[in-house]
Structure formats: C-alpha cells, structure tokens
User: Fold these one by one.
Assistant:
Number 1:
Amino acid sequence: MSKELKNLDKDYVLNTYSKNYINFKKGINATLFDEEGKDYIDFTSGIGVVSVGHGNKQVADAIYKQVSNITHISNIYAIEPQAKLAEQISKLSGFNVATFFANSGAEANEGAIKIARKYGEKNFEKKRFKVITLEHSFHGRTITTVKATGQDKFHAPFFAPYPDGFSYDNTIDDIYNSIDDETVAVMIELVQGEGGVQPFDKKDIQELAKFLKENKILLIVDEVQTGIYRTGEFLASNLYGIEPDIITLAKGLAGGVPIGAVVTKHKNILEPGDHGSTFGGNYLSTTAGLEVVKILEDYKVSGKLDEAIIYFEQKLNDIYEKYPNLFLQSVGLGLMRGLRVKDEQTLASIVSKAFENGVLVLKAGKNTLRLLPVLTISKEEIDEGFKRLEDALKQIS
Ligand SMILES: *Cc1c(COP(=O)(O)O)cnc(C)c1O
C-alpha cells in the first residue's frame, strides 16, 4: 500500500468513493500487479469495462497509431473510425440502426431519453414524455439518469429538484398497468447489474416488447453493462430475441477508453442541432472501440468466448454448491455473474478476504457477490482466481 498515493488521493481527489489504497502498476489480461509485484486476479474488469483485458497490445497499438496522427476533430467533420464502429454495431447486432456516440453510460441514457421525448412530441396528438423504469435499476449519475434509476438511495434530497416524468415499477408485469396516455417509453436492463445481477425472464421480455410495439411506446434497453458480448452474445437483446427501439452501450465497448453509444432504428428523429457532444465519437475512443469489437467478434466466432463462459460457470457453481452456508442463489448470464450471499456483512467480509487473497471481486445491491471478469480471461486465470476465492471463503466459513 502506497502511503504517498493515499495522501495525494486524500488531499486532492474529491471523496466520492470509499476505496482501497492499492497502487496497481501493471496489468496483463485478467491479472494485475501492485507496486510490490504482488499479483491479483481481476474478476471485475473495472466494473465490466476492460472487456479485452488489461494492457491489450492490439488495442494499444491501434490507439497509438491513430493518436500519433489525429486524436480529435469535431463532429462537424465525418470521422472514419466513428462511421466504421457505427457500421459494426449495426452489423453485429443484426439491426438496421444508427448510432450517436457519447462518453459514458449515463450520457448515452440521456441521449436515449432525449430521443424518446422528441418521439413523444412528434408522434402523438398530446405530447407523451413519461419514462417508466424498474426498481433496483441503475441508469447513471447525472441528474436525469439518477432520477431514472429506480433506487431511492440515489435520490438524495440535497440534489433536488429532479426532472419530472419518471416512475418505477417493481416487476415487468406491473408495467402494463402503469402505462398511461403520457407514457412514451419503458427503459430497462435485461440483466440488472448494480441491482444484483438479476436477469429477467425471456418470455416476459418478449411479451413486453411486443405489447410496447403494438402501442407505439418505445422500448429502451440499457445495455451499458450487458452489451458487447458480456452475456455471450453481442447484445443481451440478441440473446433475448428482441429488437428494442433504442439501445445504450458504454462500459465494455472501448476496453477502458471512455465511450457511450445511443443506438436506434429510429434514424430520423434527431436532426442537426438537437443533440451533440464535444468528445463523443472522436478518433481515440472509436478506434479503440473498433479494435475491441474486432477482437471480441473473433473470440466469439472461434468459440473461445463460449468456452470461457462454460468454464467460468462451472467453477462458480462448484463453489456455490460447496458453500451452502454462505450462498443462497447463483444468478446471472454469460460472464455477468453473481452469488447471493446470506447477509450483507458476510458479503463485505468475502470481498475484503478475497482482496487479501489476491482476487478482485465486486458487490452488487445489498447481498450479491458480483463477478464481471475480463471476457478474454484465460483458463489458468479462472483456475487461479477461484482457488484464491475459495481460500477466502475457507477463512470465513
Ligand atoms: C454503469 C452503468 C451506467 C452508467 O454508466 P457511466 O459510464 O458510469 O455513466 C448506466 N447503466 C447501467 C446499466 C450501468 O451498468
């Protein structure tokens, strides 16, 4: 632990995270090294961001080659890697869609909400503007997306007033009754990430999608966490067999370079002047995104991604079955996984013991141990990570 870093951080960085004072110096795929050279297996990938691993040479080379020529010009000029990444998103999703690039998940969701509001103005006699989301959802930290997030703990009174037009339902079924003549969109995650790695039922989602389509209400799927092969397909929407009106992406799309994307089949709602971003879609982020998507498409096509998913799942289920005194349920899809832990305190001690034993894991919601490994994680890294996790569990139970 670096004393110097700790002091710097405490003195100069705003105190918005309770954090571990560790100074990571090097990363290779799913393995990180601190300043003493101690290694950690990373089952977090920076909360689902570093999709193709730390220090990915292919991505680094592509970025270097691009930024040593041009890093940035504004969106008043066409940007080749941006156009190509948008093309790839359409191709790989199988949807006839166009994309707006932003810089984060929250910003992508803001864009989605703006599209929905304009759609609500244009397509109905009386303007529709309300967006229904779900309890335990997470959609971001801006004033609007935090309001869209269905968790009271994020709606602190000191940030009020919040924008109008958001309400939360407990279940997919409840949505049908909440829709009124001002509802323009339903925004959901297919697997709630921050809310506890909770996947929804495929049939329920398909029925909802069909109903919304018949009623001209937009379905916005927040794939900021589930997108870009996290659940085993390019999009979780592909896995669920639905074609949403708007999809948002961010975390895994550029392997750690900030990016967000609003993807929609409604290509003509926004016009010049309606929306914009200084940095969104620049050469740096979209070059990284293009390379990430290329690597992961190969990974999927070659069968390696599915192999990793099956192997990881098997190891996870082994510890789940071995420690019934700690775990209540195994949840999640693909490489977005969770174990429900019997109580909050046990979860906190698993996370800290895991850290001591050299494996990084996450929490989600109140009682879910969350694992979001690098998608290119090797078999050896999976073995070593679970061995260390089990060492931690032994010390607890
Ligand atoms: C992380 C996340 C966000 C917010 O993304 P930021 O890049 O932090 O703004 C939004 N929605 C979901 C589902 C997320 O997991």
Note: The chain has two domains: 59-301, 303-335+345-369.
Number 2:
Amino acid sequence: MVYYNERQQKIAKKFSPDVIKSNWTDWKWQIKHTIKDIATLETLLNISFDEVERKKLEKTLAKFPLSITPYYLSLINPENFRKDPVFKQAFPSPAELQVGTWEMEDPLSEDKDSPVPGITHRYPDRVLFYISHVCSMYCRHCTRKRKVGDKDSIPNKKEIIRGIKYIQSHPEIRDVLLSGGDPLMLSDDYLDWILTELRKIPHVQVIRFGSRMPVVLPYRITDELVAIFKKHHPIWLNTHFNHPREITPSSREALRKLADAGIPLGNQSVLLSGINDCPQIMKRLVHKLVENRVRPYYLYQCDLSEGLNHFRTSIGKGIEIMENLIGHTSGFAVPTYVIDAPGGGGKIPVMPNYLVSWSSNKVILRNYEGVITTYEEPENYKSIRCNNNCEQCDLQLKPYETGECEYIGIARLMADSEKIISLTPENNERLGRRLAE
Ligand SMILES: *Cc1c(COP(=O)(O)O)cnc(C)c1O
Ligand code: SF4
C-alpha cells in the first residue's frame, strides 16, 4: 500500500505536471527534489515572506543549510505554518544566529573522543560510526548542525575502511551504531557492503542504525533495503519522531516493513520548545509509536549546540513529562529522559524522585498517584562478597561468558574486589596540599 493524498498531489504537480504516484513514492525522486531554497518553499506552500524577513532567513541559511523532502513538506499545514511542528523542525529561524552563552560547536566532544575519523568511541563496548555526512531533511534542532550538509555526500571509502579496521582491532566493541548524517542516504549496495564487512568481525554482536528516514522520507524503507537488513541480523534501528503529527500512513508503512523484518525499533525524541514540550503531546506520541511497534527509547534534553537556543526547555519540563508518563501508561511506552553531558560524559538519565526515605530495614517510596508506601527489606539477605572468581561462585556464570571483569566509575567504587575508596577530581587542592607536605 502506498499513499498519495490530495495535498501531496498538489505539491507534486508544482514540480512537474506529469508527476505520478510512482515518482512521488520513489525515494530517489524525493531526494532529487528536496527543497533547498526559500523561494521554492514559498511557491509550494503558497506562502510568502516579506523582504526584511527573507534577508534574515537567507543569512541563517548561509550558516546552516536548508533541505526538506517534498514528503515532509506535505505534512505542513500552510494555513497556520508558523506554529506548525513540522515547519518549525524543518524551516530556519533567524533565532538560530543568536549564540547563547553556553553554546558550543561540539558540545558532546564527539570529535575529541574520535580515535579515527568517523568513529566516536566513548563507551567501553560500543561506538558511533558516521557513514554519511548528509540527510534528506536537515532538522533545525540537529546537534551536529555545524557538521551535516557541508561535505561530500558519499563518505570516502578509505575513511570507512579505516573505521571498520578500528572496530576490527578493538575486540571490546560489541555494538556498532551506524549514524551520520543519515546512514540511509547511502545506496543499498553500499550499505550491504558495510554490513557485510562488519559482520565478518566476530566480536560485533549488534549493529544499530540511527535514521530519521521513517519520519522524513518513509519511502526510503523499500522491500529491497529491508531484505538487505534481514541478511545481516541482528540489526536494530532507532528513528526520531518528535510529534504525533509525523506518524502518517506512509510512515506507518515504513515501520511495518521494518518490524515485519524482525528489526527491533526504537525512537529518540528531542524535547523542543514550542513543538513537543507538553505532557499530552508526548503521551499521544508514545502511544502512536507503540501502536506501530516502536519502543520509545530516549527523550533528549536539547543539547548545547550552537543555534539551538530557541529550542531549549528547562529540565523541569522534561521531568514534568516523565511524571506524566511513568505509571500513567504502559512501561514500554516510557522513554528514558537523558541529558547528554557537555564535554563528552555521555547520556545521564534524569527522573522524578520516587525514593522518599530509607531506614535500616525499610524503604519509603511514593508512586505516581502520590501514595506513600513502604517496602520491607529481607531480614536474612546475605549479599555476595565478590572476589571476581566466577569459577568458584555459586551463581554459575561461565568464565568465558564474562570476558575480562573491569569496573568503571561508581560501579568500581561498589566492587568488592577493588581497593579504591573514592573518586577525586584531578588537581584537587586539598590533596595537592597533602603531597606538598
Ligand atoms: C548515544 C551514544 C551511544 C549509544 O548509547 P546507548 O545508551 O547505548 O544507546 C554510543 N556512543 C555515543 C558517542 C553516543 O552518544
Ligand atoms: S536527521 Fe539527524 S543528523 Fe540529520 S539533520 Fe536530523 S537530527 Fe541531524
């Protein structure tokens, strides 16, 4: 089933009178006809900006490029376009040029944590692998705003091979996230090649895609693409719906194809001022997602990237949304709200507090209704003192299943086998004085 509604037909006809459904639903046709300038958008939506505004918009575009697929454009309601959640995600605002005090070009230090070009290795067992520099639609709230769209569309094969070699030579990497830009901008053959190469590496257990195609260009999810994914299982895919309006018959169809191919689907939303900063909108969104077999995975606090000032909300808004979801709806419909730590600390989950207090044998908790309750801790629980000797342990984990046991951070403070008693910031003055004595 492919869908081609009246508004879409009208837009298609403006490109050329003989566009038919099969062009419109051809992803390559869509990419060839992405809207990259203001005048085309005005014609297609039948709207217009005055000279002053247009000048400001042009200035914004000179810094951050514009690209909208005809499909995504067709979701905009021209009657009320300025408040439209799709318009606001896709169309520039002069506010992007106001740089906030704390904004940075690379707030997540993705470039600093990059051992070879195209790879960010931040967490112990998984890497981000950027295999495309472009997207079909440039999200105005993109955290990699300064980077996407300014390079060649096909990443240099040498660079990709270098990335694959890095993964090959690091046996600790068991999960590879293919990202970009949008990795599904690459051709089927190219993707097949990358997946084949990655699958030759025995320690790569899981391959994940991060792609916004199901939202902005669902026709990219073709039977052929899905057949390629199927050859290389386990493949996971995370997409990026931000507003219930984005779930359309076409996007449902794309999600159905992916889910039917056995690809576990997740969604990463960004909390955006004036777009989805409302508990009711978020609830509607997560319900629509799970109806389509997509599990809400993360809700991101908007990053401190340059040009995103006007999109940022308070953290309180995010916690309020979580308060409205946890307990109020299915557990699997609730994403984890995270702040991606500036400076490269990774994602930090943030939640309302449920633990009210604690005694030597009881915890005091509150639930979503405001009921305060107690949980009596077991009297005879004997915690295992772990010496990392799995072979001697009653829990029967096979030593070859654990690999090397390495504790990091707070988990290291907790580990019985570690001698460390505290974590101290570098250049701590107090300790500096001790050494000086
Ligand atoms: C988000 C992210 C990952 C994946 O994190 P998960 O919590 O496993 O989804 C990996 N590397 C980097 C650099 C990331 O930002
Ligand atoms: S699809 Fe992703 S990488 Fe591309 S512009 Fe949007 S947020 Fe950025």
Note: The longest strand covers residues 294-300.
Number 3:
Amino acid sequence: MNEATQLESKFPVPLRDKFHIPTFASMGIDPHNNDELTYLCGNSLGLMPREIRQAINRELDAWASRGVEGHFNHPSATDWVDVDLPVVPLLASVVGAKESEVAIMNSLTTNLNALLVAFYRPRGKKVQILFEKGSFPSDYYAFHEQSRLQGLNPQETLLQLEPRPNEHHLRTEDILKAIDDHRDTLALVCLPGIQYYTGQWLNIGEITKHAHRYGITVGWDLAHAVGNVPLQLHDWEVDFACWCSYKYLNSGPGAMGGAFVHEAHSAHTSMPRLAGWWGNNRQRRFAMLENFEPIEGALGFRQSNPSVIDVVSIHTSLQLFQMAGGVETLRARSLQLTNFLQRLLQSSKFYGKPRGFVIITPTHHTNDHGAQLSLLFDTTDIDEISQSIRAKGLIADERRPSVIRLAPAPLYNTFQEVYRTFEILEEALTEFTAH
Ligand SMILES: *Cc1c(COP(=O)(O)O)cnc(C)c1O
C-alpha cells in the first residue's frame, strides 16, 4: 500500500474529479455505504464525465427553445448542421490522423460494414479476408455476410488465424507469414488493434506495411485501442479503421462511433461507398440535387445527420483527453498502473496455482498490451469469483467461462485502487479455494 501511495504521488491521477465514480450505495450493493467502488471496467464502459450532463442539457434547451432553427441558429453553441466538426481535430489527435481523415458517424459495427462495402473489393482470385479466430462476434458476422453479399462462399473467403497450440496470442511473425502464404488470394486483412479478450496490442504499423507490399488492403477495428494506446494511423498508412466511443473514450453507452479513411483513398471522391446527404458537399447539401458530390476526406463517408446529444457527449469527453495532455501523456501513467497491477497479481499466492489464475495478456514489451490485463482462472465457473469481487467493491468485466478482464483507466483510476483490486482478489480466492 505504501508503494501505491508513492506511485500515486509520482504519477498523480489527472482528472478523477471530472468523473462520476459509482459507490456501493449507487450500485445497489449496500444502500448504507457511500464509499466509492473500484471501477476497473473502463474497457467495457468508461465512466461518465460530469460535464456531459450540462452539455446535453444545453442541447435540450436549444431544442426546447428554438426547434428546427437550432440547426442554423443555435442559442449557445455550435449550430447542429456542423455540430460534429469541432470534434474532428480532437479525435484526429487521439488516433494520429490528419483532420481530413476522421469522422464521427454511426456506430462501430455499422462503420465496419460501411467501410467493408467501400474497401472489400474481391477481384478474380483475390477474394479472401484474413482475420482472427476468436474475433469479437460482431466483426465475424460482418465479414461473413459481406462475403455473402458479394456472392461468395464464406467457407472459402474467411481465413482465420489462431494462436499456436498452448499459446494465448498471435505472434506477429505468424501473421506476416499468413500474409505471405496467401498473398495471391487475399483481398483484405482486418484485425483488432487490441484484442478484446486477451488485451494483446497487435503491431499495426508492421502488419499494415507487410500486407501493402502485395497490394492488400488493411483495416483495423480499434474498439479497445482508441483512447488507450497512442496510434499513428496516418503514418502507419492504415487504409481504414473504425471504433466505438463508449469504452476508453467515456462518451456514454451506445455513443456514436468513429471512422478513419486514409487520405490516399479519401481524397478520391470517386471512390464508391454507402452514400447519404451528410457526406455531400456542405454548400449544396440543401439544394437537394440528384448529384452526389462527396466531401473530400472521411466526412464524405457520413450518411446521416448525427445525433447531437451523442456528438456533444463525445466532444466533452475528448476535451478531457486534451486537458490531461493527450493520449501519449496518459499512456505513460497507464503503463505504470498496469505494471503495478501485473506485479501485484504475479506476487499472489494463487498465481499459477490450481484453482488460482494466470495473466494471459502479453506483457513482455510496452507495445504488446494496453491498459487491460486478462486473468484466466483455473475454474470453468467464474460466476462465483465474479460475484464475490463485486460484493467486495471491485467492478470488473467477466468473460465466461474463465476470464476476468481488469483495466485501470489512467484518466480516473488510482494506484490505491489497483492495490485494493489485488486485495479483493486475494480475499475472494481465499474464500473460493477454501471449499
Ligand atoms: C465493443 C466491440 C464491438 C461492439 O460493437 P458495437 O457496434 O459498438 O455494438 C465490436 N467489435 C469489437 C472488437 C468490440 O470490442
């Protein structure tokens, strides 16, 4: 605990007071206990920035007082017609993109599907999509159905990589080799920036570069990477990417997603896509002409006018990232938090023991994992441990049958909380192994 206090004074939590932290009482665990819970679940749903309530209220007031005129004559903030534009530079800095390369639009799976329509262009023998076995099911369904929409057979087009026997994550060399082996039949490589289950951070730059040698398009699902680790999407020459905003970006349940389209593509307005009026030339959008003139850049991939309440939530939340010094600065503290958690867990008397647990997240290098550590328990019924840690005040994410994911978020979690996490797990496992 001493060490936690020392680390906390060396790497102080930047913006905890800007967030609502759930308590035992607010969570319904113990109505008389107003102590804060240890929330290590920001990889699943980030906590609520307090200022989002005012930001949303401002839009409700605008709607109440001005109705439709809020689109062009907002009483107190950006006109709704351009409400997402001030968010673009903030988002571009989070993902390492040029401003012209990012947009907030739709939601994650919808963006994946929209970008697959534009970027998955099977031709001749080049029809395959390389991705991972054990991918988030939404992504699998998208690849499967996109293949069928092209009149192809998913049995032939879906190429799934899996870790070697007795290993938990993919080796970069194996991914590169799979690309070499299938270079003549691959149309697309589409992988997660950070794998949601294991927490592995893939080498986005190297994999993208390798596939490009053979002219293969490369897309990334950044759900668990955005706001978690520094990204350089422009420099890595990623073709396209998409993400959600409710995990590390703290923008609220089901908040709109984001999309990246590299300028090498987005500058070409002739690129076929899923189209809508919001992607059309801003000056002529309301002329209602039968002439699709997409905006140059990622904004030209927007289809609908955005949900204003969503957009201001994302805006408010991204301002906190900026206030904290940006993702690079946060990452330095994040590594300290996660390292501390790792050291404590590995010192546990249950580590690697029967009915104990191991960490399956790769942690050999600073660039092979983000904030999250995934714990694999030696039990096929994780529910008992899960319920026990929750009752003791640790909110973590359970993945049946045997995994619990812990993710200290550098914006609001503290080293004391990491220590408390360790204590709670020790208590829970002491009880669990006693029967
Ligand atoms: C969280 C997550 C999703 C969720 O998709 P939504 O469209 O936002 O519901 C999809 N894919 C991955 C990899 C995720 O981590």
Note: The CA atoms of residues 289 and 388 lie 61 Å apart.
